[in-house]
Every structure is written in structure tokens, then in C-alpha cells.
Amino acid sequence: MPYRPTSISATHTGLLTTHNEDQYASKQELGLWVIADGMGGHAAGEIASQLAVNAVISSFRSGSLLQEAVADAHPVVMEAMQNNPLLKGMGTTLVAVHLEDTQFQVAWVGDSRCYHWSKQRFRQMTRDHSYLQSLLDSNEVEPDVAYKHPERKSLVQAIGVSDDMHPQVSTTDGTLYRGECLLLCSDGLTDEVDDENIAAIFSASGNPEKICQRLIDAALRNGGRDNITAIIIKAGSKAPYRPGHSRTRFSWLVSGASMLLTAAMLWIILGQ
């Protein structure tokens, strides 16, 4: 990978749960990062999320496109349920990123998210597959009260769950320039820390390890009611700057010195 990125990941069980149903993987050699947030209780959620992550990696490594690799996780989870009645109803959300040079693609099912951060803006790349999101889209619920809605955790898309679930994998893409980051996370983070505060944590430090830990700490301070998982991918130090990027301190110094020299020459000429 010419512009080798930096990535860091962290997970926490949370303060009100006894086991972690989140699973994640960082496969830098493939340019692939994945988070799955399992559902089903007991061990079932953990199994669903791990099966899904493994299936995505295996399918992608075999040559599938990212969207196809995520879709391939559904029959794997369904087969496990059919072979073991104790796993009935298990499922998982999933978000994955493939980064090649500066170009990235995001694929997801459910409400695990991907964000893109740059000094210019912080934006959510994914769109939750949830009943609440459909209400927001139709203006039936105001954004400032959405977090109180009783159906805020109801998903309309997931991997596994039942034969009636036919997940539609959504995708989006973009460019990751020098100094910019992608954040993948489970809803254990976004349920506790809003976008404004996540952006503030990114703005306070350029170190992915510090950012990742501060995100986990913030979610725990705000309640930590669910498993919390985050992966941060930072563009490589040799990646190109975003077009229109402000000049470096050195270039400003050179420019400033040039202006002073020009002014001095004009003063000498005019003075004569």
C-alpha cells in the first residue's frame, strides 16, 4: 500500500454488560477493517459477530468486492443457526472499510457506523438501517428528540436473525487525504457520545491511539451501557494533501520571508 495508513482499535465490555458481543478485525495487508455488533444475548451475539467478521475477511481475501463480502456473511450466520437451535435468532450489525491508496469504500448493514474526519469537517458516512432513521427521513421525528424515541434501537436490516431478513448492503465511498481519519464504531459509542463531542475529541489530538482511548473513556463516563468498539484509520504520512489544503508552517515562513524581502526592495527603490 503506497500510502500506508496508521490504524488503532479498542473495545470495552461496558459498565452494564457482562460479556462483549462486539468483534472487530484490522487486516492492513488487505486494506480491510471490520466491526460487527452481535445481537442475541448470552453467547449467541458473540458467535454471530465473529462468524460475520470471519466471513467478510474470507470472502474479500478470495477476491469478492467489499459489498459482496459483507453480503456473504448473512448465509454463514444463517447456516450456523440452522445447525444449532440454541443459536436461533442471533444476528449482527456490521460495518467494513476497504482502503486502497487514498480511495476508500464503506459497506454496512445495521447501525454500526463509519465517520470521516478532516480539519474542514466531521461527517457520518453511513446511514443507520433503523426504524428511527426512517422516521427522521420522513420528518416524523425531530432530530433533537430522536435519542428519547422508544423505537430508537429497532433495526430494519441485520445479518442473520431470521429467514425473513434479507439484508441489503449499503455502500458509499470517498478519498482519505493526509491528516484525515476514518472512524468505525459500534453503537455503544454513538449512543453515549454525540457527533459534536466525537469531533471535538478528534480535533484535540492527531494521535489515533489517544483519540481511540478518549472515545472509549467518554462513552464510559456517559453511562457505558453497551459494548463499545472503535477503529481509527489515519491516512499515511506520504498521502497527498486535500486539494486546497492550507500551507504548512514552513511554507508560510518562506512566503512571509519573501514578502518581507520584496517590501524591503521596494522601500530601497522608492527611497532612492
Overall description:
This protein is α+β, with helices and mostly antiparallel strands and 272 residues long. The chain has two domains: 6-241, Phosphatase 2c, domain 1; 248-272. The chain contains eight helices and eleven strands. It has helices at residues 44-61, 66-71, 73-83, 131-137, 187-190, 195-204, 208-221, 249-271; strands at residues 6-12, 22-27, 32-39, 91-100, 103-109, 113-117, 122-124, 159-160, 170-175, 181-185, 228-234. A hairpin with a 4-residue loop joins strand 6 and strand 7. Helix 1 crosses helix 3 (73-83) and helix 6 (195-204) runs antiparallel to helix 7. The chain is globular, with a radius of gyration of 22 Å. The N and C termini lie far apart (59 Å).
What value does the average pLDDT take? 88
What's the helix-strand series? EEEHHHEEEEHEEEHHHEH
Q: Major beta sheet, specifics? A: 6 strands, antiparallel
| General shape | globular
- Give Rg in angstroms: 22 Å
Q: From the coordinates shown, what is the CATH architecture of the largest domain?
A: 4-Layer Sandwich
Derived from helix and strand composition plus strand pairing, the structural class reads alpha+beta
Distance between the termini: 59 Å
Provide a compact summary of the structure.
With 272 residues, the chain is of the alpha+beta class. It has 8 helices and 11 strands. It has helices at residues 44-61, 66-71, 73-83, 131-137, 187-190, 195-204, 208-221, 249-271; strands spanning 6-12, 22-27, 32-39, 91-100, 103-109, 113-117, 122-124, 159-160, 170-175, 181-185, 228-234.
